[in-house]
Design a protein that fits this description.
Two copies of one chain form a homodimer.
Chain A lengths: L2 H18 L3 H10 L4 E2 H8 L3 H13 L3 E6 L2 E6 L2 H17 L1 H11 L14 E2 L1 H10 L2 E5 L3 H6 L6 E2 L2 H4 L11 E5 L7 H11 L4 E4 L3 H6 L11
Parallel strand pairs in A: 4-8, 5-6, 5-7, 7-8
Antiparallel strand pairs in A: 1-3, 2-3
Helix pairs in contact in A: 3-4, 5-6
The structure holds a DNA duplex.
Chain lengths: 230, 230
DNA sequence: CTAGTAATCCATGGTTTTGTGGAATACCAA
DNA sequence: TTGGTATTCCACAAAACCATGGATTACTAG
């Protein structure tokens, strides 16, 4: 085997990682897994895939070393193989956002930012991690986690209250009415907190959005809390 | 278009970046471009591809926003679209190295580390950036750039001497015989400096290798020098 | 041991990449 | 304009990938 073939073999090996990232569905799975481990069926449902299809994609990810598995009785839990995978995913998104012009329009369409009264509504301001930390310690805001319960349990911002978006309109009473709410969800591209802010605004509350989510929070090595299943 | 489709559209957009990274040949091209801009023909030669094939791959990279072009007369120069692309490439390699066991064996095969007397030889020690900087300012080493002239001209470590590997055995006289040499090339996976150290050892000199290369040097935001064409 | 559940394996058609020659384009130099 | 050169576009066959349904494996609960 000549030098050229050896080099190709090495780079083809690198390309396995790239290939694994080369499908929107797989990236959705990685996005979900960045929030915590999950079973195949749960992933399939969350991503809108058939179990067989989801399993096949997960095998691809596993073959590329991006995820690992843990068996618990009859079900298998998938998780990211390391923090570097979340970082890689985030960098891919950032590169796409920076260098592909179509991303911005599709992001706006997905997050509902083009429908003034549906999603974020009038006030679309966002606050940063630093602001959130400062105002949370000062006690002037309620930090609200609107992700599904399972993801909150896996890891959340310490002190955050969990009300999944689905339940939010029924549980508005749990929020102190005079305190500003800061909602967050999975990451910068996650739609849940946008919709939560919309719901809160329509109920007459002051609410803003953390300008990112759990993914970036963890990558910044900020502390997280976990909670055992209820 | 429902929420699910909008989400898919957005993630498919992200996946364009992943797809572009999903081919060994394209990664080789990115690796070369990380050293500086180049024309299509030059890239095709360096990567062992036909011009048509190289052009097609470059189009894919361009469509994914990873490279940009500059026309100069009849030829077109490609370059990485930004520092973040080099960073992404490096992270893909690092993830592959960490999580795929086959990478290590192929790396060793490519770099010739399995042939004791051919490549690195007996003394395979490497030094770090910090060591290099300290010993270079102390003046106890000669820093040697063994990449092709073109890449040296695009950017190199300040104060480094340029002797492309091809010419090294003919130009040994240019090196002070009593000074230790530290060779570097493109990056951690680049074979040139391994072979250079082998050549130097066989000529009876003390020589080691920087444990990384120009790619990592730039990503660390260390200063570089450039030289106009000779 | 049997029934039931979760996940993977396997086979299959439909779509997308890949590599490659040959034609077309864009530019330069007289 | 007329060559000449660098690059891209086009067409096509081989290979790889995708989604999906049915069979199979691995495990748990009686």
């Amino acid at each position: 085997m000549g030098d050229r073939e050896k080099k190709s073999a090495l780079f083809d090996e690198f390309a396995r990682v790239g290939k694994a990232l080369g499908s929107g569905k797989r990236l959705e799975l990685v996005d979900l897994l960045a929030q915590g481990e999950r079973t195949v069926e749960s992933l399939a449902n969350a991503a809108g895939l058939g179990v067989t299809t989801a399993s096949a994609h997960l095998q691809t990810l596993k073959h590329a070393g991006l995820v690992s598995t843990r068996r618990e009785g009859t079900r298998i839990h998938y998780r990211l193989a390391g923090d570097d995978i979340a970082r890689l995913f985030n960098l891919v998104r950032a590169v796409a956002q920076t260098h592909l012009s179509d991303v911005e329009s599709k992001r706006i369409a997905y997050l509902g930012l083009d429908e003034p009264d549906a999603g974020g509504g009038e006030a679309r301001e966002e606050i940063s991690r630093e602001d959130l930390l400062a105002r949370a310690t000062a006690g002037t805001i309620t930090v609200l986690d609107v992700r599904p319960r399972q993801e909150y349990q896996a890891a959340h911002i310490p002190g955050a209250l969990s009300i999944p978006l689905e339940e939010l309109s029924d549980r508005l009473g749990e929020l102190a009415p005079d305190r500003e709410v800061v909602a967050y969800c999975r990451g910068a591209y996650c739609v849940l907190s946008y919709e939560a802010v919309g719901v809160l605004h329509r109920s007459g509350r002051r609410a803003t959005r953390l300008n990112e989510g759990m993914l970036e929070w963890r990558l910044a090595n900020l502390p997280t809390a976990a909670e055992a299943a209820a």
